[in-house]
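hey m, so remember when u said the tokens were messed up on ur end? i reran from scratch. heres the input so u can diff it against urs
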Amino acid sequence: MHALCRYLDERAMEQEAERKIGWMLKLLFAGTATVVASQFFPYLGENLLQQSVSLLQVKDPLFKRMGASRLARFAVDDERRMKIMEMGGAQELVNMLEAAKDDSTRKEALKALAALSLSDEAVGALHNAGAISVISSTPASVDAEAEIYKYTLSAEKKLGGWGLFGSKYEDAADFFDDRCN
């Protein structure tokens, strides 16, 4: 009986030690992962941005759409929009729009250009990149959303971003209402 109790006590102690060692290993792994992530992730945003601009230069329209979509999602503030401009994203988007053969590729290019045009400084860079003539020569789309982006960009670029139409969002909403009704 005494040997059985002693065996059960030893077994309980072994399980407790295994559990503590397991937690210690988990904490060590989590700490290591945190240190590695803190060294790696600050560079991820810029690398991802550069990759997105590079995707605009490939021949495959799917990859071009992916790059434009990423840039549109990335352009959330003036600092990021200017970073895209510095990396040549505006010119590449204009080139993409000019060379686009299908509506979905044109739509993604227009969407990314619309996101960039929310910055006054970016509007000037888009104007210098020849966006006005490319946007105005873009064929009409069956996709209403693409037409809204095109209309928003046309109003923004032709007037140099001075807002003579009022809010470009109101203009786009009016255009959408006219188009759908």
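this time it looks ok to me. The chain has a mean pLDDT of 77. if urs says something different then somethings off w ur setup not the seq
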